[in-house]
Amino acid sequence: MSVPFLSIGPSVLAIEPLLAAVVERLGSLAGSDGAVTSFLGLVRNHNLGRGVRYLEYEAYEPLALKSFERISAEVAARWPGVNLALHHRIGRLEIGEASVAIAAASAHRGDAFAACRYAIERVKQIAPIWKHEFFEGGDVWIEGATANPDDETARATAERVACA
Amino acid sequence: MRVTIRLFARLRDIAGATELTREAPPGATVASVWRDLVSEFPELGKYERSMSSAVNTDYARMDQGVGDGDEVAFLPPVSGG
Question: Can you give the residue ranges of every domain in chain A?
Fold first, then answer.
């Protein structure tokens, strides 16, 4: 099954199509990858001591997709040769469902692990996506980072975490 | 001129609308659109220092000018992933 490398939408996420998409199988680079890593973010049943019932994700979709393109370009600049795929789900998600799926393929495992970790850190920093948490007894919008793609300190932090 | 304002998450809840259309004077900036919005919905003011903005689906600084028909978005701190 062929999937876009970057997407955001209400569809249920699956990691296998992303793994297939990032590994080079055609053309002159076929067979050049030695590692593929993946990350799946799941809806957790607890947060800050609250029992979570479900989450609703909202996004500014066109800007979210542009943010993913930026993250992909940053990965390409920092880890040349890495192929990255990144899908984020929006809408209502139940406990245990995947909200984000990332795959990275490279000649060597180090770059593939680092690129995957970097991508999720940057999603949390700059993608215009919000969690609305419905917990036992109420609901709350989760507010994390002030999104600023040009904040080099934040970007460097993501890179440091990715390479730790 | 007229601008379309897009609001998300808690900002949308405060204003009670996903999208608003408002008149803006010549020379308007993202900052002036925001100030007018806060006058209309004072509770938005607490996001002054933590929100981000975008014009026509690209991140924008507060001093960026806006033109007739532009879409100006205000974004509370993000929580994807």
Answer: 6-162
Distance CA B9, CA A127 (A): 14
Burial of residue B4 (number of CB atoms within 10 Å: 0-12, 13-18, 19+): middle
pLDDT, tens only, A51-109 = 999 999 999 999 999 999 999 999 999 999 999 999 999 999 999 999 999 999 999 99
DSSP state for residue A151 in the 8-state scheme: -
Q: Is residue B9 part of a domain?
A: yes
pLDDT class of A25 with cuts at 50, 70, 90: confident
CA distances, B70 to each of A63, A86, B16, B55, B63 (Å): 15, 29, 21, 7, 15
B9 contacts on A by Cβ (under 8 Å): 58, 130, 132, 141, 143
Please report residues of A whose CB lies closer than 8 A to that of B54: 60, 63, 128
Interface test with A, best of B47, B58, B71, B78 (most A CBs within 10 A): B78
Query: Could you tell me how many helices (H) and strands (E) chain B has, helices first?
Result: 2, 5
Distance between CA atoms of B66 and B41, rounded to whole angstroms?
21
What is the architecture of the domain spanning A6-162?
A: Alpha-Beta Complex (3.90)
In a 13 Å sphere around the CA of A58, the CA atoms on its Cβ side amount to: 19
How many helices and strands in chain A, by DSSP H and E?
4, 9
Burial class of A64 by CB neighbour count within 10 A (0 to 12, 13 to 18, 19+): buried
For residue B28, pLDDT over 70 is answered with yes
